[in-house]
Amino acid sequence: MEKITSAKNQKIKQWKKLQTSKGRRETNQYVIEGEHLYLEAVKSAMILDTVVVTEKFLSKVNPAHLEQVILVTDDVMHTLSQTETSQGIFCILEIPEQRLPKTFNGKFVLLDGVQDPGNAGTIVRTADAAGFDGVIFGEGSVDPYNDKVVRSMQGSQFHIPIYRGNIRDMMGEFEYIYGTALDKNAKDYREVPQTDNIAVILGNEGNGVSSEVLEATTHNLYIPIIGKAESLNVAIAGGILMYYFV
């Protein structure tokens, strides 16, 4: 079993590149870190290219992955870790090739410029919990395999397809497509039918859904605010809308 004791090792340098969008694009790989995500990957029968562990974590590795294991020292793991406290395991996976369906049947969430990694990951996790059929990251949205998005998804990327695409090009592909907006023409979300073949569009944290997209929807929806808050966080709003359509 290979053991790496220096952070200057070439493999360590290559793995560090996966912390950048450019590095992930060039290799088509991404990283999961920590016991929970490792166990979720095992449960979901994901193929792990490399499993990097410290001596302390070695006994927890599934026997099926021992050939992929590379041991590292605590100091090297600290170099690789993207959290303040290393969790002892760091796995490298292929980014799945998800081609957009030719026809969209089911329930989808479309992200139009959602840039906060925590919001994006929470939306994917909620879509998974609500039984949606996919999440599409549109132009201007955060990289779905950014480390903070991956941590927020909590393994939901193993359960629900994640796509990337131009939202404007797919506006006519859904039976019902709902934007989110705070304007006089928007409808209370509870007024639209709870149908199966739908898309819900969630927009940028500061600017919302783009006007070009809003003009091409079936309806634009709003969530009534009863108290004095100015608005809802996009991930919270997304959760309310997704569960309405369950």
TrEMBL record:
Where in the numbering of this chain does the RNA 2-O ribose methyltransferase substrate binding domain appear? 31-99
Q: Which UniProt keywords apply?
A: Methyltransferase, Transferase
Q: Which GO terms describe its biological process?
A: methylation; RNA processing
Among InterPro entries, the record links this protein to: Alpha/beta_knot_MTases, MRM3-like_sub_bind, Ribosomal_eL30-like_sf, rRNA_Methyltransferase, SpoU_MeTrfase, SpoU_subst-bd, tRNA_m1G_MTases_N
Keyword Methyltransferase found = yes
- A Pfam cross-reference name: MRM3-like_sub_bind
Coiled-coil parts of chain: none
Q: Which domain of life is it from?
A: Bacteria
What this protein is called in its record is RNA methyltransferase
Its Gene Ontology cellular component terms are:
cytoplasm
Q: Which family does it belong to?
A: Belongs to the class IV-like SAM-binding methyltransferase superfamily. RNA methyltransferase TrmH family.
What GO terms are given for molecular function? RNA binding; RNA methyltransferase activity
* Listed PANTHER family: RRNA METHYLTRANSFERASE 3, RRNA METHYLTRANSFERASE 3, MITOCHONDRIAL
